[in-house]
Amino acid sequence: MTEVEDPHPKRGELLIDITKASVNPIDYYTITSLKVSPLPHIPGTEFTGTVSQLGEEVKGFSEGDRVAIYTRFFDGRCDMCIKGREMLCRNGGRIGVDTDGGFAEKIAVNSLQAFKFDGPEEIAASLPVAALTAYHALKEAEVKLGTIVVVLGASGNTGMFATQLARKMGATVIAVSRKSWPKELGANEVVDYSEAEKVVREVTDGKMADVVINSLGAGFWDSGMNLLGVDSKLVTFGTLTGHEVKLDLSKLYSKHVKLIGTNRGSLREFSELVEICRDCKVRVWKEFELEEGADAVRSVLSRERDGRVLINVS
Ligand SMILES: [Zn+2]
């Protein structure tokens, strides 16, 4: 850990004392392969904390407020922002990749990105990436009451939220995982990969899934495609198992399948999550101290990982 000067909140910003951060694969790639700014760089795309200072003209917050933070910055003025797609802002970016992030004691953020949140810290530290990515994917797939949703990788960072948020949205959820604990997240069925096709067929009376969430990438592409029914949607937003796939176009069009790529979520969706995800469950695998940040980041790609990796900051 390196000592750096404390940030100062500029006009419209809040200074946050970070209390807890979560580790995602993107933090690993931030350190190893992504183009980042500034250098030297503080990673950390997912974190929560307490307001410790208000910049000029900030309204609606007080010192000591606990906040959940939308960890993408955006200009609020471009065509994407105007239509509520802040994550695609033409002049935006990712806190922790394109700016210094939250594996630190303090950070200054635009107050527009902060939402008061008094739920558990491990939830606040899971909303910006894990929960938001999952929620946005489900919204893009128009999941509603009665939708049959299959979540591949249901015990992963986004998978655990896709499972429970789809249930909250009224879906029937078939969680595909090598673990059994996604049952505790409310999944209607939890099945291993080898059983997935059979169980989805049984549960749906042969109709197969309306929506498949593939956060894992190429390694699970074919199994995901095989689970889709007619007029269905496959949503993908991760490439941990590879990013190049073969696609049978005749299956795609004959079943009228929509392929949807998603990337995090909007500010509005984040504000919705702050309400609907207060009682979400977070499976924690390991907690590290800030001084052990490098070990924490390395551990996120461990094959033994079974739940989230968190960093305690204070
Ligand atoms: Zn914009």
Automatic annotation (TrEMBL):
<dbReference type="InterPro" id="IPR013154">
    <property type="entry name" value="ADH-like_N"/>
</dbReference>
<dbReference type="GO" id="GO:0070402">
    <property type="term" value="F:NADPH binding"/>
</dbReference>
<protein>
    <submittedName>
        <fullName>Alcohol dehydrogenase</fullName>
    </submittedName>
</protein>
<keyword id="KW-0521">NADP</keyword>
<dbReference type="Pfam" id="PF00107">
    <property type="entry name" value="ADH_zinc_N"/>
</dbReference>
<feature type="domain" description="Enoyl reductase (ER)">
    <location>
        <begin position="2"/>
        <end position="311"/>
    </location>
</feature>
<dbReference type="InterPro" id="IPR020843">
    <property type="entry name" value="ER"/>
</dbReference>
<dbReference type="InterPro" id="IPR013149">
    <property type="entry name" value="ADH-like_C"/>
</dbReference>
<dbReference type="Pfam" id="PF08240">
    <property type="entry name" value="ADH_N"/>
</dbReference>
<dbReference type="InterPro" id="IPR036291">
    <property type="entry name" value="NAD(P)-bd_dom_sf"/>
</dbReference>
<dbReference type="InterPro" id="IPR011032">
    <property type="entry name" value="GroES-like_sf"/>
</dbReference>
<keyword id="KW-0560">Oxidoreductase</keyword>
<dbReference type="GO" id="GO:0016651">
    <property type="term" value="F:oxidoreductase activity, acting on NAD(P)H"/>
</dbReference>
